[in-house]
Amino acid sequence: MGGVIALGSDVLAIHHLSLRSDPRWRENEEALARLRGTPKALSIYALLDLVGLVSRHVGERSSRDLYLGYLRSEEHTILFPPHHDSWEEHIDTVMRFLARGMNYRDALEAMALEATPEVELYLSWKTSLSGRVAVKTQTPSEYLAGLKG
Amino acid sequence: MADTVLLQVRVSSTLVKRIDELCQEGIFRNRSEAISDAIRMLLSRYSRASPEARATALYLGGRLGRAGNPEEIVFQVGARGQVSVED
Question: Alpha carbon of A114 to those of A110, A134, A138, B11: distances in Å?
């Protein structure tokens, strides 16, 4: 896996759920279109977030199929951070991320991103990880602006 | 004794030490009994596993076939009303 862009669950959810009335829709679609055909990544936590949203708004079968679709995807790598055998180890690790001032969900995402040195950019509408994770973060809007120079 | 097969496997010395400790505590009579119990648990885990869990195991082992782009899967949900991806 070379330098890859990791996608947040919000970017994928806006796309998969066709949220056309969302003010972020157009730029969200444009950013994903620009990335089509290139290697991308998403954390297992982002994928499970997405699966939960699809289960709620579409249905269980579709959410399970989407999970399998991402595991089998030719374009996407799923980031599985090291798994802990004990709660003590998990608390020890996650506490180091929580100490940076992020919530637990962000801490899990940050753990997955930082465990994968090949991730060069994290693309999400959430800005809560910005400056708190050792990976450059951008919104799709900022990403597109960067492309247009 | 039930029909048994001699199984030669390489196991880290750390694991063997921990197994021996369990034997010394009396939890298992010997290494064979401990490893047989572990194999039974492993088989039970996979016999109950969902298709998603089985696929995840294959993915992590690098043995899941790769095909297609899931971004092509789109659900027409947005028109139904307020949906928040931040929930």
Answer: 6, 6, 16, 31
Provide the domain count of chain A: 1
A35 contact partners, CB below 8 Å, separation of at least 6: A5
Q: Which two tokens stand for residue A128?
A: 């809560």
Mutate to test the interface with A, among B59, B80, B85, B86 (most CBs of A within 10 A): B85
Structural domain of residue A115, as residue ranges? 4-148
User: B76 is written with which tokens?
Assistant: 């027409």
Question: ipTM score of the complex?
Answer: 0.88
Give the CATH number, domain containing residue A107. 3.40.50.1010
pTM for this prediction = 0.84
**pLDDT(B87) > 70:** no
Residue B62, CB half-sphere, CA atoms under 13 Å: how many? 0
**Looking at the complex, does the CB of residue A12 fall below 8 Å from at least one CB of chain B?**
yes
pLDDT in tens, A125-140: 998 888 899 999 999 9
Domain extents for chain B? 13-86
Please name the residues between 24 and 53 in chain B that touch chain A, using a CB distance below 8 Å. 51-52
Q: Given CB atoms, is A10 within the 8 Å cutoff of chain B?
A: yes
